[in-house]
Amino acid sequence: MEINWYIFTGLLTAIVLLVTFLIRQNKKDRIKIEEELNYLKEIEEAEFNNDLHL
After folding, report:
1. Count: domains in the chain
2. Which domain holds residue 42?
């Protein structure tokens, strides 16, 4: 049985593209989640800074 190189090459290319896409998407999602978790409203920051008079 002979290997069909066209199918093998196409499948390998699709796998590499899928892995690349998933890695990039994971990085974008990680940055987005970190920004959401580190988010503070300006009002909350002002309330924390008002403690200087104590």
Report:
1. 1
2. 1-53
